[in-house]
Amino acid sequence: MTRFTRRQLLGAGLGTAAMGLLSGCATPGTQSVNAAPTIPGAEGPVRLTYWAWLKDFQNVADIWNAANPNIQVDVVWIPGGNAGGYQKLYSALAAGGGPDLAQVELRSIPEFMLVNGLVDVSRYGANDYAHLYDPTLWKQVSYTGGVYGLPQDSGPMAMFYQPAILDKVSGTTPKSWEEWAALARELRAVDTYLDCFPISDASPFASFAGQAGAAWLRPEEDGWVINMTDDATLNTARFFDKAIDDDLVTTAYGAFSPGWFAAAGKGGIASTVTGSWGDALVEGVSGSEGKWRVAPMPTWGSTGFGSSYLGGSTAAVLANSKHPKEAVEFAVWLTTSKEGIDAEIKNSGIGWSPNPEFIGTDRQQASKFFGGQNYNQDIFVPAAQQQNPEWSWWPVTQQSFNILSDGFRKKAFGTSLVDSIAASEQQIITVFKNKGLTIRKETA
Q1: Among residues 151, 132, 131, which one has the least CA distance to residue 141?
Q2: Considering Cα of 143, then 148, then 152, then 157, what sign does the dihedral take?
Q3: 0.85 exceeded by the pTM?
Q4: Rounded Cα–Cα distance for residues 63 and 184 (Å)
Q5: Model confidence at 444, in pLDDT bands (50, 70, 90)?
Q6: 395/389 Cα distance (integer angstroms)
Q7: pLDDT digits over 96-118, tens only?
Q8: Integer Cα distance of 89 and 425 in angstroms
Q9: Architecture in CATH for domain 6-153+312-374
Q10: 171 contacts: CB under 8 Å, gap ≥ 6
């Protein structure tokens, strides 16, 4: 992924007074928090607040609190980002308040930058710890020569499957997507689907396209360049268009929905290609202990990458924090130390560790549920190293995904994924322009 320069993001409208004034109230974005002098460390004890949607996260912070009496952390639970958590954060920022830290998804970092809501933590020594993080994740928080969040977790992808169901046909896990389609066709003969394709959620498709080599948006000196109709994306769309048309996948539900759990428990669906965090959800399939295994994600043959990411979040320092230096100290401990990572896994079921040197004590062990397979070490460690480094996130990411998902829903009425992607690209260009962001379509 290309690092964004300050000039590039200024040209794109990030980090400037892009939001103006709303209802007579100054909003983040009217004045750069990162243009002000750095705030020195406190001379006495401080209390930090951290807003996150992770469960039991205060238990994690309490481990830090016990060892660091001068920097105490209070956790406030908020709904998941787009389920209301982000709105609370935006409202708090606009009112001049909010927490010191917040859980912000990797893909949402540019949107918070658009409203000047994040501190450039490189100003508080974050680059000194860059070597502790997965390089691909570090690049996804690096913009304008700064760093706007510390990677907290991610979701390298693999294939969770039920071997007993595959044994009804060839019994072999697919190494390529072509083999995946052949296996899916065999399974339809025994009234089983290999997987589902959620037409109401474009996120998995974006991960599949990214694995194939797509990079939908990139910054240049004069703004953003968009290309959602490249060969990697359209070939991926054609593949899943045919899979849906040939009834090789079900579009009736998405992975880990009630319909999916019912089908998986009855043998009606054999597998799912998803993020590493899917292991905890697979364990929710009734009566399935010992009946699941994990295999590498199918690949696109000689092109593309071995895996992809689905999901991922950061510990970001919010613009109105009075103690950014101490916030960075806590965030680095949380996301890179053995104590922090183990506590997050145990208490909160956090996703994949951003520290490639330590995946978590429990994740180094064989899994009873997965039949004694040491799948984290054998499957997900390599998967985390086989990512598309050119993929990057952009402003209005969530709105872009909503547009794409709306287009995918039209598949049920005969519109191909290929056609909906082309139409969605034009709508996304319009959204950029309406927000005052410079964007152009890439030309051959």
Answers
A1: 151
A2: negative
A3: yes
A4: 47
A5: low
A6: 19
A7: 999 999 999 999 999 999 999 99
A8: 28
A9: 3-Layer(aba) Sandwich (3.40)
A10: 163
pLDDT, tens only, 350-404: 999 999 999 999 999 999 999 999 999 999 999 999 999 999 899 999 999 999 9
Rounded CA-CA distance 104/110 in Å is 10
Distance, CA of 424 to CA of 426 (rounded, Å) = 5
Which pair of tokens denotes residue 415?
């519109």
Q: Are 94 and 25 in contact (CB under 8 A)?
A: yes
Distance CA 204, CA 308 (A): 10
Question: Are 138 and 392 within 8 A, CB to CB?
Answer: no
Say if CB 39 and CB 135 are below 8 A apart.
Answer: no
Q: Mind listing the pLDDT tens digit for each residue in 222-269?
A: 889 999 999 999 999 999 999 999 999 999 999 999 999 999 999 999
| Arch. (CATH architecture) of 156-308+391-441 | 3-Layer(aba) Sandwich (3.40)
**In this structure, what token pair is assigned to residue 253?**
């539900």
* Residue count (the chain): 444
**Which residue's entry shows tokens 């992808």?**
157
Asked if 79 and 53 touch (Cβ cutoff 8 Å), the reply is yes
**What's the mean pLDDT in 5-11?**
38
For 165-223, the pLDDT digits (tens) are 999 998 899 999 999 999 999 999 999 999 999 999 999 999 999 999 999 998 887 88
171: helix, strand or coil: coil
Separation between Cα atoms, residue 22 and residue 19, nearest integer Å: 8
pLDDT at 24 (0 to 100): 23
Q: Angle of helix 397-409 relative to helix 203-212, nearest 10 degrees?
A: 100
Cite the residue boundaries of each domain of the chain with CATH code 3.40.190.10.
Answer: 6-153+312-374, 156-308+391-441
